[in-house]
Amino acid sequence: MRPPPVAARASRPNPARPPKHRREERTLTLTLTARSKKTVEKKSAGKKKLSGYMKFSQERRPGLKTEQPDLTFGEIGKALGAEWKALSEADKAKYK
Question: For site-directed labelling of 1, which of 10, 53, 70, 71 has its Cα 20 to 30 A away?
């Protein structure tokens, strides 16, 4: 027969190995560092050309804010999206 199970004893910290939460932080730091390197490479490549929708929203947003000042940021975005969707292809072409 086997002896009854022994109650789990408290684990002692191993000085050679950092606690688990610190190991996760270190991994996160390495990931962020890798991302920042990619970001730096992307920034040096130059900016992309604005899409037609972005040009339209930059032009239309100030007017929409003055027409309806009580709209939140998200509501303004939804309204701009609806207006863009309602535009004809000929009207959209001037923004492209």
Answer: 10
Q: 56, 63, 59: which is closest to 82 by C-alpha?
A: 56
Specify the pLDDT at position 47: 75
Query: Which 3-state string (H, E, C) describes 33-94?
Result: HHHHHHHHHHHHHCCCCCCHHHHHHHHHHHHHHHHCCCCCHHHHHHHHHHHHHHCCHHHHHC
- The pLDDT tens digits of the residues spanning 5-58 come to 666 666 666 666 666 655 555 554 555 566 666 665 655 566 788 999 999 999
Is residue 30 within 8 A of residue 54, CB to CB? The reply is no
